[in-house]
Amino acid sequence: MTRNRFASGLSVAIPVQGGYAEMRAVATALLLLMAVIYLASRVYEPLHPAIGFVKAFAEAAMVGGMADWFAVTALFRHPLGLPIPHTAIIPRNKDRIGDTLANFLRNNFLTPQVVARRMARIDVAGAAGRFLTNAPDSGGRLKAGASRIAADVLGALDPERLGGMVKGAISSRIAELDLAPLLGQALAAAIAEGRHKPLLDGIVRWAAKTLEANDTLVRDMVHQRAGSVLRWTGLDETLANKIIDGLQKMLTEMTEDPNHPLRAKAEEGLAHLAIDLQDDPRMQARVADLRDEIMANPAMRRWLDGLWESARAAMLKSARDPDAVLAGKLGDMLIQLGQTLQDDPRLGMTLNRFVRRTAVGMAASYGDGIVRLVSDTVRGWDAQTITDRVENAVGRDLQFIRINGTVVGGLVGLALHAVDTWL
User: Fold this and answer.
1) How far from 246 is each of 249, 250, 253, 290, CA to CA, in Å?
2) CB atoms < 10 A from the CB of 415, how many?
3) Which of 40, 57, 202, 278 could form a disulfide with 410 if both were Cys (CB 3.0 to 4.6 A apart)?
4) DSSP state of 304
5) Count of CB atoms within 10 A of residue 384's CB?
6) For residue 135, what is the DSSP state?
7) Among 5-19, 96-110, 306-320, 347-361, which range has the highest average pLDDT?
8) Is the confidence at residue 3, as pLDDT, over 50?
9) How far is 193 from 31, CA to CA, in rounded Å?
10) What would the DSSP string read from start to end of 364-391?
11) Do 3 and 16 meet the contact criterion of CB atoms below 8 Å apart?
12) What pLDDT is stored for residue 40 in this prediction?
């Protein structure tokens, strides 16, 4: 059951505390019962002296119950709607109540001294260490939370703007990269370690296969450049065969003989190229121009777009999987961090001191703001809202006061009547 009130233009749902209405009904019924007993005892009092004790009990119980009903009701509203002075205490003093509550919080909970004493008894490092150590094996709250946060962050980012930033960063880094010296150093290191030889072998084999696949083109070139006499006598065909056979023989010898003179020339050319890449400004400029042409090529742009989309899809897929977020090295690192926090007293002391100083600093810096928030919130409620909230919080206990007042009042009246009778 709820009561809807309006505070500062906003609808506030106020839950009614369980048992409050029932206890109020019990207290009221008890008071009415005492009234009925009192009236009945007045009628039948002459029949027996003991009925006088019943009448005294009921009469005093009514007085006690009515007094406590008045006191409880006066806290929240005017009894019977009458504007009796010093009633409806809470509605009339709601602003002062808010200020008092705020000052109570400020003076007893949000002072740096209180926060420091409280934080000194809390082992944040140990708690964090136990949580990190046991989280992967105890239900995965850390994994689920990390997964949700990572997925929400990636999903909230604008893919176009973020992709443009990533691709722009990659392009700018490549554009600033001086490739020529790096290529020269890599080539020189490869030559020094003999790692260039498989490259030469591959080039020679590629040349042999290319020659074999394009021998017709060589024959046509020889035929077109030969004189009419050579073509008439058929010597152009013989010349073409000799050229092709010679080239094939040379490539075969280069493949089989690691010390072939042409291989030595090729290696010498590679060595000169490595030196030029590192030291020759013109060669470096040519490499830079080639780099810029490649980066400006639309195909390169499309490749970067595809690379970014693939990376983003992979990150989102991983972020949505709690087991993947903290799997592997990241999960092991967190477990190791938790173990270290438990085993290293100095690290734990440092972390606890940092947390304590942070909490004390926040209390000193933002305590007044929190107090103002409490005070302004209470001030923003209308009188009926704060009345309902307070009454809902303590109303059940206040009904016990009414019941106790009725019973205690009756017992006092009974005792006074007994004393009066005996004396």
Assistant:
1) 5, 6, 11, 35
2) 13
3) 57
4) H
5) 17
6) G
7) 347-361
8) no
9) 106
10) HHHHHHHHHHHHHHHHHS-HHHHHHHHH
11) yes
12) 93
Single-letter amino acid code for the residue at 205: R
Q: What are phi and psi of 12, to 5 degrees?
A: -115, 120
The tokens for 174 are: 């490549």
Dihedral angle sign, alpha carbons of residues 412, 414, 416, 419:
negative
Residue listed under structure tokens 């590629």: 206
Q: Give the amino acid at 309.
A: E
393 pairs with which residues across the strands? none
Which of the four pLDDT bands, split at 50, 70 and 90, describes residue 34?
A: very high
Overall residue count recorded for the chain in this entry: 423
- Neighbour tally for 331: CB within 10 Å: 19
**Lookup result for tokens 């000193």:** 364
Give Cα 367 to chain centroid, integer Å: 25
- Asked whether the CA dihedral 362, 366, 370, 373 is positive or negative, the reply is negative
Q: Which residue carries 């409280």 as its tokens?
A: 118
Distances (CA, A) of 5 to 95, 98, 218, 386: 18, 18, 98, 10
| Spatial distance between the Cα atoms of 355 and 361, rounded to a whole number of angstroms | 10
Residue with tokens 């947390």: 355
Written as one letter, the residue type at 33 is: L
410 Cβ neighbours under 8 A, 6+ residues apart: 34, 57, 58, 60, 61, 64
Checking 53-58 for CB contacts under 8 A at 24+ apart, the result is 53/414, 53/417, 53/418, 56/413, 56/414, 56/416, 56/417, 57/410, 57/411, 57/413, 57/414, 57/417, 58/34, 58/410
- Candidate ranges 59-63, 78-82, 339-343; pick with highest mean pLDDT: 59-63
For residues 309 and 228, what is the distance between their CA atoms, to the nearest angstrom?
62
- Summarised one tens digit per residue, pLDDT across range 159-186 is 666 667 776 777 777 777 777 888 888 8
Rg of the chain taking only CA atoms, in angstroms = 48
pLDDT at 139 over 50: no
Which residue has tokens 């092709």? 244
* Mean confidence (pLDDT) of the chain: 76
> At CA 59, angle to CA 54 and CA 65, rounded to 5?
120
17 CB burial (10 A radius; 0-12, 13-18, 19+): middle
Please report where in the chains the tokens 């009458």 appear, as a residue.
Answer: 82
